[in-house]
Amino acid sequence: MMQIDFTDKSYLVTGGAGTGVGAGICEAISDCGGTLLLNDLDVVKTKIAAEKYPKAHAIVGDISNAKDVGRIFREIKEKYGLVHGLVNNAGIGLHKNAHLVEESEFDNLYKIDVKGVWLMARAFVKQLMEVDQVGHIVNISSVHARETTARYAIYASAKAAVEGLTRGMSIELGEFGVRCNAVAPGYVDSEQSWDAVASWTDKPKAWIEGQKNDYQSLRHMITARDCGNAVVFLLSHMANSITGQTLTVDAGFTNLLYANSFIPKT
Ligand SMILES: NC(=O)c1ccc[n+]([C@@H]2O[C@H](COP(=O)([O-])OP(=O)(O)OC[C@H]3O[C@@H](n4cnc5c(N)ncnc54)[C@H](O)[C@@H]3O)[C@@H](O)[C@H]2O)c1
């Protein structure tokens, strides 16, 4: 029977205490038997999240701060040994027209969504190279990296940068057998997404039904676990010859030229 077995391997998931995509990723890695190194900003939130999984350790720290990133990897090395897989999930959004965005808002988003991803990937690769070991990276992008909409220009550009970093690092790391890929979720059914929808419509349920039925070819909501399963696949031996790629998990959202309602029923 073909299966993914992460027993005896450790996986660092940033923003792992998030109840959205991060939770789906942690759940999928845990179900494959992997040890979770669950990173997030808040001490209590991170500990509570780590307690949900049988083999998990809370790793508190800010991925956008180089000193903190150094400390995170030192702490992991001392307490838990080598990190075999890095999932750069932590990220923030911004819903504002680019010409109205403040410099501080731009800097903050890029610091977490782009610089943080690079800082963590850099430290991850260095600890592998120090001991001549192989591991793999999955960065969480978004459908916004390729197609976007009003008020998402800054977020979209940051996610495009994440995909550029993914492609570039995959080339640099190929000779060491280290693979670097991305997962680009569409609209994921999660608490945070519901809050975001509620900020632009007073009928969030109707908006979500419309999204599902009219703007996706698959008429179900994308779950955080769907994203986690894609991450696990890319981290595993099943993706042995896949690197520098973005796996879109969007239920068919980005392939639709027109909304489903445009097509007459047959
Ligand atoms: N939710 C969606 O529909 C969706 C769609 C596409 C892509 N994404 C991407 O998925 C990822 C997770 O998003 P989510 O919606 O699940 O959000 P979320 O808010 O549930 O999770 C993000 C987590 O990251 C943590 N975090 C933020 N800054 C951090 C930092 N500097 N250091 C460490 N941790 C930090 C937060 O505390 C939070 O727990 C993001 O990269 C996001 O862009 C989400």
List the defining traits of the structure above.
266 residues; alpha/beta; Rossmann fold; 2 domains; 7-stranded parallel sheet; 44% helix; 13% strand; binds nicotinamide-adenine-dinucleotide
Describe what this molecule looks like in 3D.
The chain has 266 residues and is of the alpha/beta class. It folds into two domains: 10-186 and 223-251, NAD(P)-binding Rossmann-like Domain (Rossmann fold, 3-Layer(aba) Sandwich); 190-221, no CATH class. The chain is 44% helix and 13% strand. The chain has eight helices and seven strands. It has a seven-stranded parallel β-sheet with strand order 3-2-1-4-5-6-7, with helices on both faces. The longest helix has 28 residues, at 103-130. The radius of gyration is 18 Å and the shape is globular. The model has no long low-confidence stretch (mean pLDDT 96). The chain binds nicotinamide-adenine-dinucleotide (NAD). Nicotinamide-adenine-dinucleotide (NAD) binds next to helix 1, strand 2, helix 4 and helix 6.
